[in-house]
Amino acid sequence: MKSIRQLYKAGIGPSSSHSMGPKNAALRFKDSLPHNVSRIQAELYGSLAATGKGHLTDKALEAVFQGWTFEIVWRPDVFLPHHPCGLRLKALDQNGKILAEQLFYSIGGGDLADQDGKPLDVAYPDYPVSGIEDVLAWCRAEHHPIWQFADQHEGAELWDYLRAIWKTMCEAISRGLMPEDPILPGGLNLARRAPAMMACANERVGIQRDLNLLAAYALAVSEENAAGHTVATAPTCGSCGIVPAVLYYFEKHYRLPTRIILQALATAGVFGSSVAKRASISGAEIGCQGEVGTACAMAAAAAAQLLDGTPEQIEYAAEMALEHMLGLTCDPINGLVQIPCIERNAVAAMRAVECASYALATDGRHRISFDEVVEVMKKTGLDLQSDYKETALGGLARIAHKK
């Protein structure tokens, strides 16, 4: 299971796999180039080509290769063997001779793999467990909460890292609730809804107010992401609003100290990292269930912990959240991380708290484990047709094409 510091990253939206990942690949390639390069060529494959313009892949690459002649070859019908998001970079001299060439895969969350599908730039050691069942066994044996599992394996430096991530999340919420531009870029002319949702929440009481608050916070972050501003992957840019919304809600309205919020962020990370290791968090690989589904599970785990749940109740909340996201497709209209992505973040934030509330009304015992749902999610995602995995060819995206 990967370190949660590998899972949470601050970066520019709108997509961790289609903008952050390619930018990281370009920076890595650029650092190795000789001095006599005249032209850079990028070949984008599969999902990366199909929705790259809507996800600002071209802009991310152009920003890195300023000063050179730069061109992109879009190859949406070509899927390379190890992942749907393939990127080949070539450096040429003035005569067209190839001086350097490298193939990357953008595998989700801003992470990269090499031409053989082996992950690159793994900055932190993996946890010595294979899934959440192992984590729960450790909790029972040591009589510790789940967040202490992360603390034991990552050390004191983890908390400064999570504090910085939490700061990024909170800043995105603040900006998104008072945006400078009321219309999102990209051509859909989609109006931001976070400020209006917040105003509505302030006029309501009880459950309506709580649900509107969760939605407003999630919309704020997701709309900042769609605008190409700085967010934190949780576990991806496309699902970046869910975990921050739930944690911010508890911090502000339950008056919880930051220390408690960071512990919940660590617990959420343990569940997200388990999914990333055992399945995928890439919408291009297994659909939106891997992004919004995973984020909903992470947020449900965090909420259950903040409501004083046991490790078993926390696992149940996360399992329930992920189970009811199985089969969720990734079908962005015009390849933009806007419709249905932004609303999905709001709905998933509300569902996460509902799952936590349900789990805490039980003793935590249930038939299907979180690890088993992750395995089913992986199989379901691999069975999905490519039209429903971030290619903007099926589902809602197809309906939009007809209009």
Short key terms for the protein model shown above:
403 residues; alpha+beta; 2 domains; 6-stranded mixed beta sheet; two-stranded antiparallel ribbon; 52% helix
Q: In which order are the strands of the major sheet placed?
A: 3-2-4-5-6-7
Per DSSP, what share of the residues sits in E-state strands of 2 or more residues?
A: 5-15%
**Shape annotation:** globular
The profile of the biggest β sheet is: 6 strands, mixed
Using the CA coordinates, give the radius of gyration: 21 Å
Average pLDDT, rounded to a whole number, is: 95
CATH class of the largest domain: Mainly Alpha
Q: What count of domains describes the coordinates?
A: 2
Helix fraction bin:
40-55%
Summing up helix and strand content along with how strands pair, one would put the structural category as: alpha+beta
